[in-house]
Design a protein that fits this description.
Helix content is about 70%, strand content about 0%. The protein is mainly alpha-helical and about 80 residues long. It has one domain.
């Protein structure tokens, strides 16, 4: 199954560009590695931001309340 791709035009500092390209070259960089690096970095950052948002959302709940919500969610998922 082919994945659709979108072309981005990005602006980064010369220092960031040099550092990243040097890192990729030192690790056997091949065609497509720059795109792969950026995609993985963006996915990681989105995940981190999502986790932080959930933590903030649940900061007023006790550990017991969170465990009850997890158990209820698991029970719901198992019925599916």
């Amino acid at each position: 199954m082919a994945t659709e791709t979108i072309r981005w035009n990005l602006v980064v500092s010369a220092e960031t560009d040099k550092s990243l390209r040097q890192h990729l070259a030192e690790n056997g960089g091949r065609k497509g590695d720059l795109s792969k690096f950026v995609e993985e970095a963006v996915q990681k950052r989105i995940f981190e931001m999502t986790v932080q948002g959930i933590k903030e959302q649940n900061s007023s709940k006790s550990e017991e309340q969170i465990n009850e919500l997890v158990e209820a969610s698991l029970a719901w998922a198992r019925q599916r």
